[in-house]
Design brief:
Elements lengths: L2 H7 L5 E6 L2 E4 L4 E3 L3 E4 L2 E5 L4 E6 L4 E4 L1 E6 L8 H8 L4 E6 L2 H7 L1 H10 L6 E6 L17 H5 L7 E7 L2 H5 L3 H12 L4 E3 L6 H9 L2 E4 L5 H9 L3 E5 L7 H4 L11 E4 L5 H7 L2 H11 L3 H6 L3 H6 L15 E5 L7 E6 L2 E5 L2 E2 L35 E6 L8 E6 L16 E7 L8 E7 L7 E4 L8 E5 L2 H13 L3 E6 L2 E7 L11 H18 L7 H7 L8 E4 L2 E4 L4 E3 L2 E2 L2
Parallel strand pairs: 1-6, 2-7, 8-9, 9-10, 10-11, 11-12, 12-13, 13-14, 14-15, 20-23
Antiparallel strand pairs: 1-4, 2-3, 4-5, 7-16, 16-17, 17-18, 18-19, 20-21, 20-31, 22-23, 22-25, 24-25, 24-26, 26-27, 28-29, 29-30
Helix pairs in contact: 3-4
């Protein structure tokens, strides 16, 4: 309790600010009330008849609590925390729950510290969940390995909330020591634990819930949502760039269970944030689907605050932080202004740049070490076998299908890509160690007609991943990414069509959000030249083909991986 704030609350002195003529969204009673809001020291001290040193007229606008993204990887925007804040603040997002496991997989504790340092003193409140699975599974080798002792050093940081998504479910189910140590660490500090229950059944859900794992953002069906809610978990409805599950999951929401449901963007590219928005897009979609407006807003505000123990966030009431979103049209989520604590951060739909001024420096060195990569490394020998295990893409989903197909040219010595069959080659290359390790495979449904695409964004170990229709362009793409020390490239017919350098860990640009968006637009235009059927995000889909904790079949530097059996499998099958 602050005496200055108390004096303002009992009207012994004027509040610092008084916001009048607004329509407050009350998430407790699910009603709209027309009262004034008194603010002192960035805290709401009262609702009702107050006086203020500065009076702000809301002019009849709706006033919502600031939006909270319940699960996001800032690195997936490809910009620094500062530039990310500049991008999402105009969309009403005032708090994010972020898991820096992307940069942690590249640089370990150095990567976590980088994200904490770069998100300090921003108007966007960046709360951090510590990565639980670096690497994602014990079967992978990435840039770092994090154990409980590495994480404990961060547990007392004021913006660290808990333990991030527990992906390695076999380690949970087998009570593997390192995983148990991390879960026990969260218990020791009484911190929440996020889940990652992709494709898991009732027994695994029970075990996760018993272990204190509180959330899941990997649901793809209504039944999966209900199963987790019944186990006492919170569910985050995800609308990212590759995984777009929101519209399929909204039928699970009703007034009886909505208090345990929230939204997240997880992995959303910068260009999609510009085109669609962030959590505001989720609210807009939910209302259009038929969810009552105040419930839709509560899922973006109060629910995640309750889930993560953010006791002063998520509502407009005495004692809560003064984080407000001013809205013209409640159903369209037409945001005009964003107020955080004691100032407007966004005014008349424009970010006030002085509120987020902060220089960003690259504190993380990146060096791509591929060994002696040669053109012939991309050749796939058929060895007289005609059937292959193939990764089939499901558009707008990070879940793949495992298919077995007869390869039309299996009588030849080498497999060649086919436009007609929509088959291309894929390779995942170790970029952290000097010795050469390459996993080769075949992908169906990426829609490439020529050329190749490559990137160092390859969840979660972020090896170098490349897909293409011929070995020469794949080799050129890999060489180009290496020369940039990480990034994205599109090539065709021996020419570089577009590229974007990501020098911070091979994941993040040093440039402004506007410059990165422009670079992504150039990438998109180049993709259209080699991939006219652009019905899903090719690069984001490609990046998730290397994540061996999402069903059904993925690829690592060691080859094809069957997620359902948690085993590596051969590319070709004996006749």
């Amino acid at each position: 309790m602050n005496l200055h704030e108390m004096k303002a609350s009992i009207k012994a002195e004027k509040a610092d600010f008084l916001i009048i003529n607004g329509k407050i969204l009350n998430v407790f009673t699910k009603e709209i009330i027309e009262e004034s809001i008194a603010v002192t020291n960035g805290i709401i001290v009262g609702i009702g008849d107050y006086e203020g040193k500065v009076v702000i007229d809301a002019k009849g606008k709706y006033i919502s609590p600031g939006f909270i993204d319940s699960h996001v990887h800032i690195e997936s925007s490809m910009v620094t925390p500062r530039e990310y804040a500049r991008t999402i603040l105009p969309h009403g997002v005032t708090t994010v729950i972020t898991d820096p496991h992307e940069i942690a997989n590249v640089s370990g504790v150095e990567g976590i510290q980088f994200m904490l340092d770069e998100s300090e003193n921003l108007p966007l409140d960046v709360r951090v969940m510590l990565p639980s699975c670096v690497p994602a599974t014990s079967l992978e080798r990435g840039g770092a390995v994090l154990y409980a002792e590495h994480l404990e050093a961060f547990m007392k940081h004021p913006r660290v909330l808990g333990l991030a998504e527990v992906m390695d479910y076999p380690s949970v189910m087998s009570m593997e020591k390192q995983m148990m140590d991390k879960i026990q660490l969260a218990y020791k500090y009484q911190k929440p634990i996020d889940g990652h229950l992709a494709g898991l059944g009732k027994n695994e859900i029970n075990t996760y819930a018993y272990s204190g794992i509180l959330t899941d953002h990997e649901c793809t069906t209504v039944n999966e949502v209900l199963a987790r809610l019944r186990a006492g978990m919170y569910v985050a409805l995800r609308e990212g760039s590759a995984a777009r599950n929101l519209i399929d999951l909204l039928p699970a929401v009703n007034e009886n269970n909505s208090n345990r449901i929230m939204y997240c963007t997880d992995d959303k590219h910068l260009d999609d944030l510009y085109k669609e928005g962030s959590i505001d897009f989720c609210i807009r979609t939910a209302i259009a689907f038929g969810i009552s407006p105040i419930t839709a807003y509560a899922m973006a505000t109060f629910n995640p605050a309750q889930c993560y123990g953010l006791k002063q966030k998520g509502a407009i009431a005495p004692g809560y932080e003064a984080n407000f979103v001013f809205i013209n049209d409640i159903e369209k989520v037409d945001i005009t202004d964003v107020w955080i604590k004691d100032q407007f951060i966004v005014s008349n739909q424009k970010l006030i740049e002085s509120t987020v001024q902060k220089e960003t420096k690259n504190h993380i060195s990146t060096s791509i070490s591929l060994g002696d990569i040669r053109l012939e490394d991309f050749m796939i020998s058929c060895d007289g076998m005609s059937y292959a295990n193939i990764i089939e893409i499901n558009p707008k989903s990070i879940v793949t299908s495992h298919i077995v197909e007869k390869i039309a040219n299996a009588d030849d010595q080498q497999f060649t890509a086919s436009v007609k069959e929509n088959l291309c080659k894929i390779a995942v290359i170790d970029r952290y160690h000097s010795e050469k390790e390459i996993g080769l495979g075949i992908v169906k449904g990426l829609n490439l007609r020529e050329g190749a695409i490559a990137t160092t964004i390859a969840h979660d170990s972020h090896q170098l991943i490349v897909a293409g229709m011929n070995d020469e362009d794949m080799y050129l793409a890999v060489k180009t990414v290496k020369e940039m020390n990480g990034g994205i490239v599109v090539v065709a017919n021996g020419q570089i069509l577009a590229k974007l350098s990501l020098p911070i860990g091979g994941l993040i640009s040093l440039n402004s959000a506007e410059e990165v968006e422009h670079g992504l637009n150039l990438i998109e235009n180049a993709l259209l030249q080699i991939r006219p059927n652009n019905n899903f995000n090719a690069f984001l889909t490609l990046s998730f083909l290397a994540l061996p904790v999402i069903p059904s079949i993925k690829i690592t530097t060691k080859g094809l991986f069957n997620v359902n059996t948690f085993q590596f499998i051969p590319l070709f099958i004996h006749n």
